[in-house]
Amino acid sequence: METLSLLAQGFSVALTPLNIALLLIGCFSGTLIGAMPGLGPVNGVAILIPLTFAFGFDATSSLILLSAVYFGAMYGGRISSILLNIPGDEPAVMTTLDGYPMAQQGRAADALAISGVASFIGSTFAVIGLTLFAPMLARMAIYFGPADYFALYVLAFITIGGIAGVDPRKTLISALLGLMIATMGLDPISGIPRFTFENYHLYDGVDPIVALVGLFAISEILLLLETAARDRAKPIGIDSWLPDLRAIWATRWTVLRGSFVGFVAGVLPGAGASLGSVMAYSMEKQVSDKDGTFGKGDPRGVAAPEAGNNAASGGALIPMLSLGVPGSGTTAVMLAMLITLNVQPGPLLFERQPELVWGLVASLYLANFALLILNLPMIGLFSRLMMVPTWALLPIVAAVSFVGVFSISNSIFDLQLMVLFGVLGYLLRKLDVSLVPLVLGLLLGGDMERNLRRAISISNGDWGVLVASPISVTLYVMTALFLALSVWLALRDHKRVKRRELLD
Amino acid sequence: MKFLSTTPAVFGLAFSALFTVSAPASATECIAPSNPGGGWDFTCRTIGRILTELDLVDGNVQVTNMPGGVGAVAYAMVVNERPADSDLIVATSTVGITQIAQGRYPAPIDAVRYLAMLGADVGVIAVDNDSPIDSLGELTEIMASDPTSLVTAGSSGAGGWDHLRLLMVAREGGLDDLGALRWVQFDGGTDAVTQMMGGQIDVVSTDLGEIAGFVESGDIRILAALSDDPIPAFPDIPTAISQGINVTGYNWRGLYTGPDVSDADYAAWVEDLETVYNSENWQTAAVESGLTPIWRGGAEFEKFVVEQAEIMEEISRDIGVIE
């Protein structure tokens, strides 16, 4: 078992004092970031990236910290969903549907315990999947030519459009904005400057990290400033932290189904955790909602989406590490960090930097156990910490953003650019435009363009090359199926709403 | 805009001061015009470290990363703001000179003083292990007689150094219409090699350092090294010169300083850098990171840089990258 010995090496990387400390800090702050309404995993990771640069951690340690935050946020998101009826982050939206009713019925502790265990199983499922499938995909990736990568990017862009609850037109606008920003800088093929406005600072294009910290962290400050004056919602208290084991056992099949669906959604490039939780919830409802209890405090309605979004977040690491194509918004941000640290994710990463890949995988196993402890016995702590006053949060986020971005390039221009992106992010969020498609556009746009142009120049101008390989054809078929599925789901929801309106 | 432009700056400076306070003050500075981790960053950090180890400077050499415009931002800064600062050295390489030759820097090639090159990555022409092409002669013959039948690739864009040195080989081998040879850009030499192993492309031209692993594993074959002498680590690889193609294609690593630095200070720098070059420290560090130690310094180096830029400009014009 080659994988097992590699994993053993990974544990020796993960078990160094620095990495253990970063892991615990990541799990703790991730859970907190997830639990705080509004601050989601993308924001959390974007805010912490500059910190890793400022402290000069190496790529492995940085990635361990950020992945722990990512996983932590996935666990934490459910806390405010259940206690406040406000999703702590986007993927936790589905958890409010049954979680809050449970809390209202005095079963908050059960809801938290069930969802905590579901989160643990979901992410452990995903990490096992990561261990098994990522090296396999990396070995396959050598057969991916430029045309196949292009097809993969097309799939990524289509699946973002499939995230439920978002106006597809706004998703499209957001993705196009990202693609437009991605064209700035020296054209990699011909070396001609594009949209640089005669400014040498723009010759390398917009540094994704600068844009991301602006879009997520700075806009978060602006949003927080705006809401600071308002009253915070009061959480429902927790009666006991002792979970009802029978209630947890009763959800075992739900959790496994949710984990599987979420994992698949995570592996699809672009889709991510929101899709994972939505799909897990809808499927569970189809399968087991026989008495119409879903939406009224059914434990299975808490378990399914939590298993789903945690499994998806692990799954999303697979295409990010093995193909260099992120499986979610958060992994897109991590990808940008790796590139800035001169680590190029992709098939060769597994051969060239096994200590990074397997150190990360080993850390994720450990993170899951740490998070289980943080999220079951210590749950009371988080429900109180969730109420951190805004005045304490703002300066921290601001300081970390500015110091971090400045420490990457020593460039005042980058700081100005970051503020500019902050304002852009603020405006878009006020208009309910999701930033994730923009980020994917910004990050993938350049590679998508380059691979298209490579494919065309290899074929000497023949566009048929795009559908000439079995890999690209398979990917286009998957894209078409996914598109059909999301249109069908949208139509069905539309009909249901109409029917309900008629009944009322 | 006044508010936007100054406030972040004040914040940024204040906080960065907090973080850099632990570094000892020093007069000597090396600017790496890239993000941490790249080749220019390596040049500054390694040479800076050895300058300190050999007591050629007081204290540590401060390395500043100043990315932007493939070195253009740092170039403009030195020319405009610190032309006479004799404590400042800046990393550059063939990549930077290519940009200058194609008019993509805000100042011409002779706007700064080139100090020395201390090492180089050697360019190579590689094919897949299963390729029917067995020697450089066979390759140049195909390139000259049927240029459109080959797909060539490397880590630079059209007109970049990987492309230019392949064209130098092709021109020497008898190809007149340089634009007829297809060129595909990849983000790195390893990417190009991986695609060649996957059967997408036929020939890769890039630095040996990045793809040496594939040569050792036998996945690819090197048809020629574009160096004066065989590479010490791979003595069996024939040079292009030994096969009758009189072309070298080094990606050298060197340094420049401001245009108004006095002749005495310039000469002192060249002397210090030669001491660094001859030290055991540099010879080991260079080889460990896949570089071949090569020395050209002072007036000889300035002449070499200008000549190289002229060849690049000529070929770039031939293939239509510049007008």
Give the averaged pLDDT of chain B, no decimals. 87
Largest sheet of chain A: 2 strands, antiparallel
| Unreliable parts of chain B | 1-26
Count all strands of chain A and give the number.
Answer: 2
Strands, helices and their partners?
The complex is a heterodimer of chains A (504) and B (323).
Chain A: H1 2-14, H2 17-35, H3 41-55, H4 59-84, H5 93-104, H6 108-140, H7 146-161, H8 168-182, E1 185-186, E2 193-194, H9 208-227, H10 245-250, H11 252-267, H12 273-288, H13 299-315, H14 317-323, H15 329-340, H16 349-352, H17 354-375, H18 379-385, H19 390-409, H20 412-430, H21 436-458, H22 470-503
Antiparallel strand pairs in A: 1-2
Helix pairs in contact in A: 1-17, 2-4, 2-17, 3-4, 3-9, 3-15, 3-19, 4-5, 4-6, 4-13, 4-17, 5-6, 5-13, 6-11, 6-13, 6-14, 6-17, 7-21, 7-22, 8-21, 9-19, 9-20, 11-12, 11-13, 12-13, 15-21, 19-20
Chain B: H1 2-20, E1 29-32, H2 39-53, E2 62-65, H3 72-81, E3 88-93, H4 94-101, E4 113-128, H5 136-145, E5 151-154, H6 161-172, E6 182-185, H7 189-197, E7 203-207, H8 208-216, E8 220-225, E9 250-257, H9 263-278, H10 280-288, E10 292-297, H11 298-318
Helix pairs in contact in B: 4-11
Plain-language structure description:
The complex is a heterodimer of chains A (504) and B (323). In chain A, α4 runs parallel beside α17, α6 (108-140) packs parallel to α13 (299-315) and α11 (252-267) runs antiparallel to α12. Chain A has 504 residues and is mainly alpha-helical. In chain A, a hairpin with a 6-residue loop joins β1 and β2. Chain A has one domain. The radius of gyration of chain A is 22 Å and the shape is globular. Helices cover 74% and strands 1% of the residues of chain A. With 323 residues, chain B is α/β, with parallel strands linked by helices. Chain B has 2 domains: 27-120 and 250-317, D-Maltodextrin-Binding Protein, domain 2; 122-249, Periplasmic binding protein-like II (D-Maltodextrin-Binding Protein, domain 2, 3-Layer(aba) Sandwich). Chain B has helices at residues 2-20, 39-53, 72-81, 94-101, 136-145, 161-172, 189-197, 208-216, 263-278, 280-288, 298-318, and strands at residues 29-32, 62-65, 88-93, 113-128, 151-154, 182-185, 203-207, 220-225, 250-257, 292-297. Chains A and B meet through α19, α20 and α21 of A and α1, α3, β6 and α7 of B.
